[in-house]
Amino acid sequence: MTKLISGLVAIACVAVAEQKPFPAVIPTEKPDRPLSAAMERLYDEWNPHEDRGNELYSNFKYSKLNFKREANVSRRDPTKVIKVDGVYHVWYTGRRSECPPVGLKNATDTKPGTDWDLADIWHATSSDGWNWVEDAEPAVHRPPKPEQGNRSICTPGVLVWKGKYYLYFQAYNKIGGQEYCPVRVAYADSPNGPWTHHPENALVPSPAGSWGNIKINDPCPVVHNGRILIYYKGAPIERGSEYVLRMQGVAFSDNPLGPFEASKLNPVINSGHETCMFAWKDGVAALVALDGPEKNTIQWSPDGENFKVMSMIQIPPVAPGPFCPTTFDGKGDGRGFTWGLCHINPDGGGAANESILARFDCDLSLDVDREYFKRNNLRFNADTYFQKGVALPPLVKKQIIQSQKRLDKETVR
Ligand code: AAL
């Protein structure tokens, strides 16, 4: 027995000794040789040419837009951009209030609690995608009391379906983390309106005790397999580390006014914040950012319900609204996108006053090959590292210094 084992060990040693080092020219097929776990993954989960060979990988580059900056005017959470008769259209949360958000406790009928409180849905058009002209009035106004949404309507998602236009949005009667928030819909024959509020909720929170029992946020419509899919972020009324925080689900319907039937598999995305789903090939792709274990990834699903991580991305746009026409044509040949609008909180995330819309460009499209957007190794200047949210705050520094003696053991003991 001992002899047999030592014989086998000897054969294995010879085999390893004869094994050539991994070649410099990347084999395009998975080589038939012992591979480390990392190299197995390169072939099984990624592709041998890494991000360069990944159509669902991109960097994002940002440009300022010409929307007028005014005190207490906020623009955020844009829809997808659509193009009709040569004109680009976008809708977004618009707040024009007497003062900046004062927090939930101090909010009044005229003082907003948050950046998206006391908001309406605004519309802007552009002939080139760079210069935008905002309408003088909101496209969709908050409905009067007691209709749902009388406090704020925000975070719209657009759907183009059978020649008509639909805007889905969050509809609050009271604003706040634990307030009921269904999704309502308004419809129009033209992107220029006029818009009619549908009197019923389009999507409602899930049953008591379940993952999205108080809020349905960020409705994001996609047409897939001849049906309307609306993706959304859900949140339960309960808060605490034992509860889900931000996951995303999907609901299906053949009628844009509903009823929508929630997927039995919900949540279908375990991470993310704002939703961004788009048609890709014969399935649905999702840009998942900010929260959760799969934050900052692009994912793909053949059926809209079972997503797989396809790439890991950096500095993704916040609340992206891509220009992505194939998302509504239902042809099963989604081509992706090269640009869109997103929002930025100039104060670094708190949105204490006004958010702004910005443009992003990228290569998440099957129709172009822009090497510039496929690069890795993004590096940033010193200001990036020492800005609020990235620099070590003084209080945390104090705590670190207090525990330093206990934690920083001698290297040589
Ligand atoms: C957004 C969205 C939802 C949230 C808030 C307004 O970016 O995630 O809409 O409720 O922030």
TrEMBL record:
InterPro entries registered for this protein in UniProt: Glyco_hydro_beta-prop_sf (IPR023296)
Source species, domain of life: Bacteria
Designated name of the protein: Glycoside hydrolase
